[in-house]
Amino acid sequence: MEKAESKEENVDLSNISLRPLELSDLDDLLVWTSDEKVATFCRWDPYTSKEDGINFIQNIATKFVWCRAICLNNRAIGCVSLSSNSDHDRRRSVELGYVLGSKYWGKGVATLVVKQVVKAAFTELEDLERVEALVDVKNVGSQRVLEKAGFQREGLLRKYVFLKGYSRDVFIFSVLSTDPHPSFP
Ligand SMILES: CC(C)(COP(=O)(O)OP(=O)(O)OC[C@H]1O[C@@H](n2cnc3c(N)ncnc32)[C@H](O)[C@@H]1OP(=O)(O)O)[C@@H](O)C(=O)NCCC(=O)NCCS
């Protein structure tokens, strides 16, 4: 990921909010889902049609344990989700994922959102003990987000994810409900 390359638009972080994705977000969602740069470290390939976006809103986002549009002035500029971890009791452990339009990178949006989501998750999801995230070793910006939001880097998983043609080394990060954390209730 290129470091904080886009400075053309200032973001007032007080105008960032989270809400469920709606079909009316389709055009905004296609801005980041069709961007190759955004998709580099993600499990999906860049979207090429409106149908891809509709499928995400109607059939994919609805299957996450928790999913919200990241909004700036109520316009969707990204998405954040919690999904169940098949190796664990789905009530106790979830995997965090997030994505933001490249225009908004490097302005503190993801860090703010991740802190809010962790707080919401441990408040709203009964029995939740652990939020984890898997990050490609090359995705330095995302690792930084997690560190700033209070996650611990637990270790390196070598050749752990096969994605877009090759096996990738990923770091695993987590935060527990019992960890001291500035954004916890
Ligand atoms: C990862 C992502 C969500 C980060 O969002 P963001 O709003 O730019 O993150 P923030 O501004 O809160 O923080 C980014 C931090 O990483 C740093 N950073 C970014 N790129 C970096 C790089 N290549 N090397 C070192 N630091 C880097 C920034 O300087 C900032 O740290 P700082 O505040 O200490 O200066 C965004 O880039 C994104 O959506 N990427 C594509 C999807 C993706 O990779 N999702 C995560 C999958 S695990």
Automatic annotation (TrEMBL):
<protein>
    <recommendedName>
        <fullName>N-acetyltransferase domain-containing protein</fullName>
    </recommendedName>
</protein>
<feature type="domain" description="N-acetyltransferase">
    <location>
        <begin position="16"/>
        <end position="169"/>
    </location>
</feature>
<dbReference type="InterPro" id="IPR016181">
    <property type="entry name" value="Acyl_CoA_acyltransferase"/>
</dbReference>
<dbReference type="InterPro" id="IPR000182">
    <property type="entry name" value="GNAT_dom"/>
</dbReference>
<dbReference type="Pfam" id="PF13302">
    <property type="entry name" value="Acetyltransf_3"/>
</dbReference>
